Amino acid sequence: MTSTPTQSLANKDTASPAPSSRSSVETADAPTSSVPTAYVSDKADDSSKLRTFLSILRKFIGVADIASVRFSLPAQLLEPIPNLEYWNYLDRPETFIGIGDSEDALGRMLAVLRFWFTKDLKYVKGKPCKPYNSALGEFFRCNWEVEDSSPSVVGDGPKVSATGEVSTENRTVRVSYITEQTSHHPPVSAFWVDCPVKGISAYGFDQLSAKFTGTSVRVIPGAHNLGIFINLQHRDNEEYRLTHPAAYLAGMLRGSLSITVADTCYVTCPKSRIKVILHYLEEGWLGKTQNRVLGVVFNYDPENDNKAKIKDVPEKDVLARIEGCWQDKIYYTLKDAKDPQLLIDLNPLWPIPKVIPPENQQLSNESRRFWQGVTEAILNKQYGQATKVKQELEERQREKATARKDQGSEWKPRFFTEALMANGKPNLSEEGQRALKGLQEGVYHLEESAVVGA
Question: Which pLDDT score, from 0 to 100, does residue 94 have?
């Protein structure tokens, strides 16, 4: 099998080693570069912690959506990381900024898939964990500094800025990210990723629905989570929609948590009229996890999008086929080609560190600062104190919600125009646009929020 298309991406170990601690910089007035320990820690789980977690989950057997219940876990069962920081799709931002490089529409779709298979690297390299529940109005922001060196998959194209005036090849590019908890009931957050120099952005709403079956937790996108949307400004605003498959948190009875995926998901681009169907296979009959995925890339009619299974796609419409292990290597085979080509090798890759605003420039409702007391107590193994601080924050949120109800006032997000959008696409408010611009410029100062949810 030929592997040249992505070798330079897969071998960037020196650019992204696996950090051994939460932060490499810990000063109040300097940006912090960090990868949470949950991303890179050993996959072996504490069996006593799992037993406690399982005993709590058993109370929710039959509950349609335990995610909407928002039950409070003891601090010792939590990973010391805010949900808004943990839940992002930029584990390998260099695959994101390379999506629009190819001059070929098929090449751009394959680059979207390369990004897709790296977005959850945290689950491949680290252990599943339970971060803190997000509070209403809580927000998180960060940058990534990455080298623009990912090769085009199919169809050469110059690595240039969105204006086409400056070469970005092998240069450091900044990717900025902001996310805010826009709704508490149901629990929904909005996010926006922006890389102006490459003319690419991503946005969407995150919401999970979860059900405990007795041996595992089935997690699916919530009603307001319609997927990840990616826009390529310099490709005539091509927009891609990536839907999420169902996942399962298993291994509770064995004492070792693992993530499995068994579902079908889709990537569509109406402008290029190209669609992808990805089918994640179920476990083997002996329970051995395969982590296999099959897919087909094909021409489709956006006005008559009626192909939902791989077998439904006529051979004349097929552009490429996808196969591999989503925790190992993924290959693509072009139509009429004999040999598969390597799309992505996940083995040498680790999540890229984020650049966090300086501690003294984080607001009181910014994730790291908001949960600071809980995090410090957990890291010091003072679980009673951590639970106490956590419960105080949760009670404060309930009191503010009651006060808003009594006053007849409606919660309004700060960085997004609406708490929810029917089309699944959030819009940045003026403050959200300014905050992202500040991140791009390395200017982190923001005024304290006039109204907070907790």
Answer: 96
Residue 132 has what DSSP assignment?
A: B
Q: 315 with 308: CB under 8 angstroms?
A: no
Cβ partners under 8 Å of residue 158, min gap 6: 101, 167, 169
- The reply to whether omega before 413 is within 30° of 0 (cis) is no
pTM of the model: 0.87
CA–CA gap between residue 82 and residue 38 (Å, rounded): 11
Amino acid at 297: V
CB atoms within 10 A of CB 50: 18
pLDDT value of residue 9: 45
Kind of pairing between the strands at 354-356 and 292-299: unpaired
CA distance 421 to 427: 9
Radius of gyration of the chain (CA): 22
Distance CA(265)–CA(274), nearest Å, equals: 14
Per-residue pLDDT tens for 388-444? 999 999 999 999 999 999 999 999 999 999 999 999 999 999 999 999 999 999 999
From residue 152, alpha-carbon distances to 66, 109, 193 in Å are 42, 11, 21
Residue 197 DSSP label: G
Q: What percent of the chain has pLDDT over 70?
A: 80
3 state SS of 297: strand
453 vs 414: CA distance, rounded Å: 11
The set of residues, in sequence order, having a beta carbon less than 8 Å from that of 362 and lying 6+ positions away, is: 356, 368, 369, 444
- Both tokens of 181, joined, read 């908890």
Residue 187's nearest CA partner among 364, 36, 407, 411 is 411
Q: Is 369 in contact with 38 (CB distance < 8 Å)?
A: no
The answer to whether the beta carbons of residues 187 and 200 sit under 8 Å apart is no
Distance CA 150, CA 344 (A): 11
Average pLDDT over residues 37-58: 53
Helix axis angle, 372-379 to 383-407, nearest 10°: 160
Task: Select the more confidently predicted residue: 365 or 289.
Answer: 365
Q: Are strands 318-325 and 292-299 parallel, antiparallel or unpaired?
A: antiparallel
Of 79 and 137, the structure prediction assigns the larger pLDDT to 137
How many degrees, rounded to 5, is the angle at CA 148 between CA 143 and CA 151? 140
> Which of helix, strand or coil describes residue 375?
helix
Return phi, psi of residue 63, to 5°: -75, 130
How far is the C-alpha of 159 from the C-alpha of 102, rounded, in Å? 9
